[in-house]
Design goal:
This protein has 14 helices and 15 strands. It is of the alpha/beta class and about 425 residues long. The chain has two domains: about 250 residues, Glycogen Phosphorylase B (Rossmann fold); about 150 residues, Glycogen Phosphorylase B (Rossmann fold, 3-Layer(aba) Sandwich). Strands 3-4-5-2-1-6-7-8-9 form a nine-stranded mixed β-sheet, sandwiched between helices. A six-stranded parallel β-sheet has the order 12-11-10-13-14-15, with helices on both faces. Helix 4 links the parallel strand 6 and strand 7. Helix 1 packs across helix 14, helix 8 crosses helix 12 and helix 12 packs across helix 13.
């Protein structure tokens, strides 16, 4: 195959979420990368699960289908070289047995309200999670192969494990090289108690790929050491950060209390219990502090209970999942952002916080700690040190000012255009290998 100039490269991209329909950082990263590739002139066919309601639109405006009249393809207004094709699916990324069951039960209730027949069984129990998800992921792969037969492309690019079987199948049937993008691993999500099915899918996808993209050296080390993927086939490409929505009004919010923010999925991976333990220690010595936990997840109820048990329930606000302008508002209110992740492949939220002039404390067990020098860093498990750093930032304004100014400067150097250019270089590399 003749190696094409960057602007002529055509990519068949597989993802599981994209704004405005997002549940975590994967969709945000896919948006930033795709938008930057579009600006480079790379032509992309992006295959996604069929979207639902449009009332949650935050980043982009959908043109074409509606929930009532879905179409096989649609475009997003600002993306000139990208077309989207959809496959009906109820699955979402970052799912757990509990959240998967809740989602399926919600779908069942919607069908009942619409008058559709629903089986009188309990198909959504945790015992069926693996089999149901496995079937759904492979059905997505089958449909993706059918779609690919009518598309022209040079490279297949698959984001995260749910699309890897599709990527492997499309690459095999088309004869095109496969690039897989590891935004997180099963070890990040589940610790040592991995779901063997998901681990196997991740490993098979990486073994079949011509190149594996890791979002950090932290993630690359897991890929090499835990999945036995040759180091030479794994490239580190850091995420960028979207700056379009960072224009801030020149105003301050009057408040008596300092606000410390946790924003992210409330799951084991994100370390909410360490955040609350540190909050307790801070409140033992400072009373004028509120801790805000913005997000949803399978540990939400446990976190609410833990805050009550620690006697700090009145000082912890749980907002639930935030979208759009609500996210901007919570950043504007915050005096400090804390990311206590147990295992974070990258971590976009600290970059967004710094973009809103909020100083950050981040876990050393994160990819973003590799690119931020002017952030306070702490081991996720060291709640004493975490509390000490929180107190230091809140009590000593010059420290916060230094972290904000220098951190914001660092963030400005992390551009999605650079990320896209590195991915384009990887495309050229794998295409050159096949001649």
């Amino acid at each position: 195959m003749r190696q094409k100039p960057r602007g002529e490269t055509q990519v068949f991209m597989l993802g599981w979420e994209f704004p405005p329909f997002i549940s975590g950082g994967l969709g945000t990263a896919c948006y930033g990368l795709t938008k930057a590739m579009d600006e480079l002139g790379i032509k992309i066919t992006f295959v996604l699960p069929r979207t639902a309601e449009s009332k949650y639109a935050t980043h982009v405006r959908l043109l074409g289908p509606t929930a009532e009249k879905p179409e096989p393809a649609f475009k997003i207004a600002e993306l000139k070289n990208v077309q989207f094709r959809t496959i009906a699916s109820a699955l979402q990324p970052y799912t757990t047995p509990r959240s998967y069951r809740e989602k399926m039960e919600q779908v069942q209730r919607q069908k009942q309200r619409a008058g559709e027949a629903v089986a009188v069984t309990e198909p959504f129990a945790e015992a069926n999670y693996g089999a149901d998800m496995y079937a759904e992921v492979h059905r997505y792969a089958t449909m993706a192969v059918e779609l690919a037969q009518n598309e022209q492309f040079d490279v297949v690019h698959a984001h995260d494990w749910m699309t890897f079987p599709a990527g492997v199948a499309v690459a095999a049937t088309s004869g095109r090289p496969l690039v897989v993008h590891m935004h997180s691993t099963e070890f990040d999500r589940s610790g040592e108690h991995v779901n063997q099915m998901i681990y196997d899918i991740e490993r098979n996808g990486m073994e079949a790929a011509s190149k594996v993209i890791a979002v950090s050296s932290f993630t690359r080390n897991i890929i090499v050491n835990r999945y036995s993927i040759p180091a030479g086939r794994v490239a580190v490409v850091y995420n960028g950060v979207e700056r379009d929505s960072w224009a801030m009004p020149d105003t301050t919010i009057a408040k008596d209390e300092k606000i410390v923010l946790f924003l992210g999925r409330i799951t084991m991976q994100k370390g909410p219990e360490y955040f609350l333990s540190a909050a307790k220690k801070v409140l033992d010595v400072m009373d004028n502090v509120k801790f805000v936990m913005a997000g949803a997840g399978d540990l939400l109820h446990r976190s609410v209970q833990m805050a009550a048990e620690l006697g700090i329930g009145h000082k912890v606000l749980f907002t639930g999942f935030l979208r759009g302008e609500d996210v901007q508002k919570i950043y504007r209110m915050a005096d400090l952002y804390v990311m206590p992740s147990v295992s974070e492949p990258f971590g976009l939220a600290p970059l967004e916080a710094l973009g809103h002039d909020v100083p950050v404390i981040i876990s050393k067990q994160s990819g973003v700690s590799e690119v931020l020098n002017h952030a306070l860093k702490v081991d996720f498990w060291d709640v004493n040190e975490m509390a000490n750093k929180i107190i230091a930032v809140l009590k000593y304004p010059p420290l916060g000012m230094t972290l904000r100014s220098h951190g914001n400067f660092e963030v400005r150097k992390l551009r999605w255009t650079d990320t896209a250019a590195k991915c384009a270089d990887i495309y050229e590399e794998v295409l050159a290998e096949i001649g």
